[in-house]
Amino acid sequence: MDRTIRLAQYSLLLGLLILGLKGGAYVLTGSVALYSDALESIINVVAAGAALFALSIARRPADADHPYGHAKAEYFSAVLEGVLIVLAAFSILYSAYQDLQAPKPLEALGLGLLVSLGATLLNAGYGLYLIRTGRQLRSPALVADGQHLMTDVVTSGGVLVGLGLVAVTGWTILDPVMAMLVALNILWVGWRLVGTSLRSLLDEAAPPETQALIRRLVAEHAEGALEAHDLRTRHAGRLTFIDFHLVVPEHLTVGQAHAICDRLEQVIEQEVPESEVTIHVEPESAAKHRGVLVL
Q: Which residue in 7, 89, 105, 273 could disulfide with 183, CB within 3.0 to 4.6 Å?
């Protein structure tokens, strides 16, 4: 089974476990802050399911209707997660406002805090692992899922601090106040996640360091050619698409030019993982005397 699919499955199972723990903490205490925490856990479960579905689509091979593959499906999952985070934040703000008007006493606070702390530690460990592994595997869906879990960790941390202050001071009004502060943080994270995913859907170019690496590889390994120009890159999920024009001397045969292209494609795809290279060969008369000069 694909590693990204397996990690997404674990994320869904963890989300269900965390939801049970935080839901129990809310039932025990009646805290609106813990309610906000449990509500975000429901969002985590839905988002994990969406990520799993998107990853299963993204891993499908190219076909007649999708000749470039299905990798962009991951970005739709990331956008959905961002939208769900934003909706959760507004729901928390509404509940906190209602509780602010009429603060109510909290029950079994110590046990509720202990349950919430355990759930938070589980989320933190797996969230950091998903972000690190998702970046290694170049999976936007896994990275977004990990960021979502870390948002939940921030939420839970704020809730724990606020309820700890309630336990010490007896000021129950701190419960909805902390829920509001947490909701504003969630809103900011969700907005950033949506923006990042939408930029990727618009064929954002590879990072500058990746483009510099490609230019260096062309300069060093295109022996027999003269120059390369009009380099373009774009991301689609885990894939990086690369294309450029390669100028060769007029006397080269088609077979000789093709051999240069094969050599370049092999080198670039080895140094830039999960990349697909397309090279357009041009005669010397089409040289623009800019771009990459072959060493």
A: 89
